[in-house]
Amino acid sequence: MTEGALVLEGGSLRGVFTAGVLDVFMEEGIELSYVNGVSAGSMCGMSYVSKQIGRTIKVDLNYVNDKRFLSFRNMVKNRSIFNFDFLFGELSDTLIPFDYQTFEESKQKFEVVATRCKTGKPEYFEKNDGRDFIAAIKASSSLPILSRMIDIDGKKYLDGGCSMPFAYERAMDLGYEKIILILTRQKGYRKPPLDKWTKRGYEQYFAPLPKFLKTLEEGPDRYNRIQEEIEALEASGRIYVIRPDKPVTVSRTEQDKRKLEALYNDGRRLAREQMEAVKQYLGITDEERN
Question: Which residue, among 117, 136, 115, 118, has the nearest Cα to 126 in the 3D structure?
Fold first, then answer.
């Protein structure tokens, strides 16, 4: 295991890019001691910690058009566009089994980020810290309005990306010198301001939660500021960033399998192209590689 941090951005189904990168990491035996993920990044992190190469993309390609997994019908039935009961139930138990034993026994420290609805602030949940970690994964991945709030120990949570798009500062605060950040948007991407319809929807839906509403409204500015910070840290060599090398056209709820597979393959390609640079950054020697 290599001492270092792996930080995973969300983006719902844009997470197939991250899945491609992580599959190559696993094939190359790159196992970092600390992992954190936001939203879809938390899902990808699960397969990385459980060492299941190909599982994330298999789930997405095989079930993205299955209404049990993703559909607006779920909004009516389960108050969530993604059906987490199916994802963490039948799908993970029997259809494409998740290796819970390897996951639980892993020595890697794994945290996910969710946004507390009352405060609008990010909170961190660690595997094996005694709390319901699967509920934390669900919370981290629950999109505002498109998902119901997730209850953990009597507190309500939603998508971690609302307050913390990618938790690289968390890795720094924990003392990690080597940090690899996997993003799901190309370099230079900046979020536009909220359109009036989205803003109005947030105002109506989250009026009882003013601090969370403010967090949502400030989201684009926060995201863009953090991107600028990351680019400066990357230029100085403090962190290593892997991101798409062209504009990403995959939407958060993309159901075009060809586009999903292409983005996954982009992740694999870039991980392969940058593998030597990644190993040099992490200080992995030839002896360790062999």
Answer: 136
For the chain, the distance separating the N- and C-terminal CA atoms, rounded to the nearest angstrom, is 14
The backbone torsions φ and ψ at residue 28, rounded to the nearest 5 degrees and listed phi first, read: -90, 0
C-alpha distances in Å from residue 47, one per residue of 40, 71, 98, 132: 11, 23, 8, 18
Find the helix or strand (DSSP H, E) in which 197 lies: helix 196-205
Q: At 194, phi and psi to the nearest 5?
A: -60, 135
90 vs 94: CA distance, rounded Å: 6
What is the distance between the alpha carbons of residues 214 and 180, in angstroms, rounded to a whole number?
A: 30
Half-sphere exposure for 234 (CA within 13 Å, toward CB): 18
Amino acid in the structure at residue 203 = E
Asked if 68 and 96 count as a contact pair (C-beta separation under 8 A), the reply is: no
d(CA 212, CA 200): 14
Tokens of 290: 């062999």
Name which of 107, 89, 94 is nearest 50 in CA terms.
107
Segment 221-236, tens digit of pLDDT = 999 999 999 999 999 9
Q: What gap in Å lies between CA 82 and CA 77, rounded to an integer? A: 11
Query: In sequence order, what are the residues at sequence separation of 6 or more whose Cβ sits closer than 8 angstroms to the Cβ of residue 277?
Result: 240
Question: pLDDT tens-digit profile of 103-126?
Answer: 999 999 999 999 999 999 999 999
Tokens of 137: 């994964």
